[in-house]
Specification:
It is a single chain. It contains three helices and three strands, in the order αβααββ. 35% of the residues lie in helices and 30% in strands. It has helices at residues 3-14, 19-24, 30-39; strands spanning 16-18, 43-52, 58-68. The termini are far apart.
Amino acid sequence: MTQEQWIKEMLEKEGRISRNTALSRFCSRLGARIADLKAEGWDFDTQIVTTVRPDGKKGKDYIYIVKSKPAPRPLSLGF
């Protein structure tokens, strides 16, 4: 499964994806993949949230929330 396929699956299932979740799956270029999806017609809201690591240190996470997906393409029968 490609990074883009995994990201689309997460977005379809959860309606959102975070940078930290993507990093845990070795996807370090979530922003680039989101840009690709925007070019396909996806639309997102973005949130920046404060996180707390197990050692107590604070960090940030970026969350992309699906606003809308591209309309499905009609099947072409090739006639």
